[in-house]
Amino acid sequence: MAGTPVLAMSGISKRFGAVQALSDVSLEVNTGEVVALVGDNGAGKSTLIKVIAGVNPADNGEVRWEGRPVRIDKPSDATGLGIATVYQDLALCDNLDVVANLFLGRELTRVGVLDEIAMERRSRELLTSLSVRLPSVRVPAAGLSGGQRQSVAIARSLLGEPKVVLLDEPTAALGVAQTAEVLDLIERLRGRGLGVLLISHQLADVRAVADRVVVLRLGRNAGVFDPDRTSQEEIVQAITGALDNAVTRRRARVEEGTATAPRSPDEDQPA
């Protein structure tokens, strides 16, 4: 399986009535890799995430998991493959403590009774392995900072031992210190060999942790970039369509005989 993406999607299309949300979209995520999915509002990022998570199955296209074709028609299909999703709202219960939130819906029991000792021990082990620092695993979620809440939500997604984790705007509305905590946690997920698909509007965060940046624009692929070898301006141009416009203008000048032939956006990327 060396070199085979853990998740590969091609020709993904999704329509909602008269609205074509996705058109022929392709995406790959490898093990131990952070792939950032970026784009303007309405670019199709959330729709693609819901397709992967099985919330809104694709109308057309192929999905391959570890090289074999699969169908993701419902959330349980995604979970069964090893895909975990952490949505922006986190879905934490403020009145429950960290342990109860981590095991919500998958509580451990012993002789028909909740095994609080086992769940607390497993919670401490998981949070320690991720270097997540909390005042206590018995503090209610309402008493945690934004960064700590995000860390708990991400940790909860790992209880099912997934291979790919989808993170929807994990640093939105966080302060500088809390954002740094979450970005450190994302790097630790990569260090555990997980594939991470990061959806974010924060290009500084994307450039800090992503191995590749996939741009969507108007429901279509608009480029794949290496953040270490691509300027933020180029990524913004792909998001807004300015990169395509620049190529079109250059081609027009070529036809007029006032410029040399343009390269395609892919050719503009460093080898």
From TrEMBL:
Residues 7-243 form the ABC transporter domain. The keyword ATP-binding applies. Residues 250-271 are annotated as: Disordered. Transmembrane segments: none annotated. SMART domains: AAA. PROSITE patterns: ABC_TRANSPORTER_2 (PS50893). This is ATP-binding cassette domain-containing protein.
